[in-house]
Hints:
Elements: H1 3-34, H2 39-55, E1 60-63, E2 66-69, E3 72-75, H3 83-95, H4 101-130, H5 136-162, H6 175-178
Antiparallel strand pairs: 1-2, 2-3
Amino acid sequence: MGRRRKEKNLILIFLDFVITLNILSIPLFIIITFGLELSLLKNFEALVTFFILKIMGVNAYVVENVLFVYDKIYEVSWDSTGWKSLYTFFALVVSTPIFFKRKIIPLIIGLLSIFLFNIVRIVTTIYLSSKGILPFDLLHLSLWRWGLIGFLLSIWFIFLYTQKNNIGETKNILGFIYGRRKH
């Protein structure tokens, strides 16, 4: 395959990825625009956090998505659930032009890892701030916000690395125009 053909294929693969990712971003904007929330996820994460804090010996109790720890109150808000990170990882993986069957296991592992990482983020933020070890804003707004983004990108890069020989083997959106790339 000539250099020009390889460059053309890389451009088409990239365009395919970008167009698919942008189409998959539409639900994200709809959810944000209309303020849609899933209370079940907020309550579940608060409950999991409560159980972990109890195991750690922290005096806490939970009501729906609100945790009472010592003399402080913490709300597991919709944004605190990590839903944007979960959806972003989903969209990144689904947009990658490889056969869907190659995406299933990495998708499950990645989503579960992000969910668990977010639980650790919530638990450590509440624990360290309730004990007065570090300020809540420093943990929540600075350290963990960027930490979750870094974790998400790391998992996606690992996915890309493990699938590097398969990228471009199938079509996404542009595939309907120019067909399958590899057999």
